[in-house]
Design brief:
This protein is of the alpha/beta class. The chain is built from ten helices and 14 strands.
């Protein structure tokens, strides 16, 4: 089982390599692939040093699976080239997510849709993954009509340059700005690029990807994305209107029983999800679960997850694990 990690020197790529070891992934060989400027560098992996190779060389070596975290432009150009030599690509960028014939997969929800013909598989946006994991069992039980989501997203979701901006500001160092404003001691309601409607691309992803993964285009979704000065996790305040009424105790049990979810909901003892706690963990944490008293059949939840793990690397590797388990590669 030969695995290529494309974009291996980036934030998510680094976590992907770590997760391959942590999860005892059944690889026989791992190819670390990055841009031309990194070719020939050595990186530590599994108690040894591996030399970084270029993408053309990686294609010539015909890996069984290539996990991409190298940006949309790279994915659009090179994922089909890997697919041509029989490699199954799991792509972490937004490049393929909304293509009609490309599956958008959160394994706990819809991995069963995958088959051997799926040579390019899309990994959803980090903020979408954690939200739909909590929504899926509730949608099946009560049917979601409308979602209102506000996100509080870590700087690591933007990339290493954003983390460096935050670090520099805290040290009083002037450096490169990843954001149009200071991020330390600040909240920036701006994720991605604004469009003509006034929404950003990060907000639009939450709308479109949620509908695709849950398989229901009738769900109404509105989102506001906010960047906050946190390193290790995204948080989301989600208001859900259902077609059918619910019982709060049943909601909590439904969430607790669903794979990948940990319910932390004991406000009397100050127990609720926080990014500081979620950092470095794979689960999605759900709390502040309460009925919305302002309208019928409506629920409020607070959802937190490590955006570099379940929001990116872990989800991609779980897809790869499923492919192997079901002999789809």
């Amino acid at each position: 089982m030969k695995i290529a990690v494309v974009g291996a020197t980036g934030l998510v790529g680094t976590v992907m390599l770590k997760m391959l070891v942590e999860r005892n992934f059944p690889f026989t060989e791992v190819l670390v692939v990055a841009s031309e400027k990194s070719i020939g560098k050595k990186i530590s992996f599994n108690n040894s040093e591996i030399e970084v190779i270029g993408i053309k060389q990686a294609i010539s070596l015909k890996p069984d699976i290539a996990i991409f975290s190298a940006g949309g432009t790279t994915s659009l150009k090179w994922a089909p080239e890997f697919a041509k030599v029989g490699t199954t690509v799991i792509d972490n960028s937004s490049a393929w997510r909304m293509h009609e014939n490309i599956k958008l997969v959160v394994p706990e929800i819809n991995a069963s849709e995958l088959n051997k013909e799926d040579k390019i598989i899309a990994n959803p946006n980090c903020s979408t993954i954690q939200m739909v994991l909590a929504l899926a069992p509730l949608h099946e039980k009560y049917k979601i009509k409308r979602l209102v989501v506000s996100t509080y997203q870590s700087v690591t979701g933007t990339g290493v340059n954003a983390a460096e901006q935050l670090e520099n500001e805290r040290k009083g160092i002037k450096g490169e700005m990843a954001y149009p404003h200071p991020i330390d001691l600040n909240c920036i309601p701006h994720g991605g690029d604004f469009d003509e409607t006034g929404y950003t691309s990060e907000e639009t992803k939450l709308v479109n990807e949620t509908r695709k993964i849950l398989g229901d285009q009738s769900i109404n979704v509105t989102a506001t994305v906010v960047r906050i000065p946190v390193y290790g996790g995204h948080s989301e305040a989600v208001n859900i209107e259902f077609e059918n009424d619910f019982d709060i105790t049943e909601v909590k049990k439904t969430l607790s029983d669903f794979p990948g979810i940990t319910v932390q909901d004991d406000p009397a003892n100050n127990i609720y999800p926080m990014p500081k706690f979620a950092h470095g963990k794979d689960d999605v944490f759900v709390g502040r679960i309460r009925r919305d008293l302002s309208q019928a059949n409506s629920l409020d939840m607070w959802i937190v997850s490590d955006n570099l793990r379940k929001g990116a690397a872990t989800n991609a590797i779980q897809i790869a694990e499923y492919l192997i388990k079901k002999n789809l590669v």
